[in-house]
Amino acid sequence: MVSLMQGRLPINQDVLLMQKGMLVRKVRSKSWKKLRYFRLQDDGMTVWHARQAGGKAKPSFSISDVETVREGHESELLRSLAEEFPLEQGFTIVFHGRRSNLDLVANSVEEAQIWMQGLQHLVDFVTSMDQKERLDQWLSDWFQRGDKNQDGRMSFPEVQRLLHLMNVEMDQEYALQLFQAADTSQSGTLEGEEFVEFYKALTKRPEVQEVFENFSADGQKLTLLEFVDFLREEQKEGERASDLALELIDRYEPSDSGGPIRAVGTAWSPGGAQSRQVNKSLHFHPQELRRKILVKGKKLQTLEEDLEEEEEEEVLESQLEGEQEAKPELEAQFESEPQELSPRSKDKKKDKVVMCPPFCTPICCQIMVQAPSSKPESLLFPKQKSKPIMCPSLSALVVYLKAVSFHSFTHSREHYRFYETSSFSETKAKSLIKEAGNAFVQHNAWQLSRVYPSGLRTDSSNYNPQELWNAGCQMVAMNVQTAGLEMDICDGLFRQNGGCGYVLKPDFLRDIQSSFHPERPISPFKAQTLLIQVISGQQLPKEDMTKERSIVDPLVRVEIFGVRPDTTRQETSYVENNGFNPYWGQTLCFRVLVPELALLRFVVNDYNWKTRHDFIGQYTLPWTCMQQGYRHIHLLSKDGTSLHPASIFVHICIREGLEGDES
Known about the structure:
Layout: H1 13-20, E1 22-27, E2 33-40, E3 46-50, E4 58-62, E5 66-71, H2 76-80, E6 90-95, E7 102-105, H3 109-127, H4 131-146, H5 156-165, H6 172-182, H7 193-202, H8 206-215, E8 221-222, H9 224-234, H10 241-252, E9 261-262, H11 286-291, E10 293-295, H12 303-321, H13 323-336, H14 377-380, H15 392-397, E11 402-403, H16 409-415, E12 420-425, H17 426-444, E13 448-452, H18 466-470, E14 475-476, H19 485-494, E15 502-504, E16 528-538, E17 554-561, E18 568-571, E19 583-592, E20 599-606, E21 614-622, E22 629-636, E23 642-656
Parallel strand pairs: 11-12, 12-13, 13-14
Antiparallel strand pairs: 1-2, 1-7, 2-3, 3-4, 5-6, 6-7, 8-9, 10-15, 16-19, 16-23, 17-18, 17-20, 20-21, 22-23
Keywords: Calcium, Cytoplasm, Endoplasmic reticulum, Hydrolase, Lipid degradation, Lipid metabolism, Membrane, Metal-binding, Nucleus, Repeat, Transducer
Domain C2: 510-637
Domain PH: 16-124
């Protein structure tokens, strides 16, 4: 199986030494520090570990799981052990998603550098992989897991074990037939390309073949015109169908003739027909950024504010040029002018807040004001320690948004400005939505609102942000460390623009005269009907990988989150004992009043008649970002990381109005 990646792996001295293995110390806490033998496998893509060299090894992580590698001083845990282990010998492996970091301490600085440089070298290679290389790596990972004795060959008993690991319940006689057909060397084992042929036999897609034959005149190939018709009529690609057809042929057609797409081409492979739900780029006007956007975890800064900062810097430069000449006058001014006292200065400690000298006006926005000094330069570069006191007027200058208390919508309209923001607890915000939903929408059309989780959520649980977004609230705080439905919804909304943190609100949430009420939505909003045919699934993972003999019984649930009348869910029946290529072929119908606010969540669960269904994977996206036609939905784990190549194959159709039916 190593041959799949040979010639493409970026082998260097560090990688070769990692493949020999090293004894390092795994650190979980100040009291848990144990030696483990880590070794990069021959495939160059997986790392295994054992209690000691030559001991029974088990998989630790795949290179594709790693986001980056950090030095020891960047880890809070390793810094706390600096007296016991030199920081230069420590390093941290950071994984994608919410998986915990792995802190390791090598026996020497040289060994630490070998692992840090080697891992980062491989991570960079994985990041630059194309579609075929990712599939090869995925196959290599499965081969390594199925090859129990690690001899580089897979016997039929090992293949049977691998089928269970891959969620495949298959008749033994049929499995043996596929095995013998792939064993072209007649060795009784599968190696390299033989295993690839066995995998191809497992992954034949009759439902894709049926779609292909429906648009192909001879059932063997698609001409360019046939392919363009398919993209225009079925995939609803419109005018860009011709250019897209040429682009897809150039990217995925394996035939050297470069002509028509064939039924076996990777344009319809599980990872090939990429669904493009999130490829909408948005541009925002500075005024829109100021008060008409949904915000995720970032401060607002408009173009106007950037220009103001540049002007302040120019003023600062010109003022500093004349600083030396102005010193005597400044000293005289300080002696003659009385010191202003803040309200806080009247307490027993008699702390004073001083006015800033003219020459440091732009700088004072970034410093804490100190006690009076006879020399103005000592205000900026003090030698003595003193208790800092923040001047309220200065504090108001260093924030982009000024916090103000909320009394009522009428009070805010009469007394507050657009750059001021009010904070609400989730309980208060939800109460306002029910009592005065339309007034809240109008309020959020001209002023920013910030909503935060209730203080009773001591377990760091989350609330559903959709209800607050429906009222136009711009900043809805979440406990991002807690994975689950609520964070799936939050990530889903901001996925449409690459997760950069800003999403333009619908126009009826930006109109200060809006008549929209989130609890009672009415016309003129355009209702739509959604028909989703859930066709099949591919390579669905197990919920518990330690149970080799268990096979999942998958079902698909489609959930819609939006205004209250639109929030609903439907699910398919379950497929018994097949997580590898289950087939459903069922159509679900949804009618939505306000599609601009709706989000769709595709969830795959393992059916369990005794208890609640076990979660397998999900994908969430805004209604307005859905692409019609045949699409693959690539699943994500609980913590938001990719479960590649796990996916479900669906057909999506959107109709205007509420007249749609399931036919």
